[in-house]
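Appendix C reproduces, verbatim, an entry submitted by the partner laboratory led by Prof. M.T., so that reviewers can inspect both the input and the predicted structure.
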Amino acid sequence: MIEHTVTFRLIHPAGSPEEAAFLDAARELASIPGTLDYTIKRQTSPKLDHRFGIAMRFASKEDYADYNAHPLHTRFLEEHWFPEVADFQEADFEAL
């Protein structure tokens, strides 16, 4: 099982229509086959300036690789992630 997590800050003002449109587009990624437990979260701690987090799980490395190569994911990166994310941190975990 692989858990993929990313925290990020957008270039858009909080509560803006652009922020909402980004999050709506991100929600579509949950429909990619093999994606489990997909959640988008809002940061509540002042310790990190990233306002959002996305977490998901994959049953296998193959499912994760398929997600990364899926046209919906690559299109999201090009159309939304690269132009709209100001800063991010990504981590992928497997249970010990």
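The two ends are 10 Å apart (CA to CA). Additional entries are available on request from the coordinating office.
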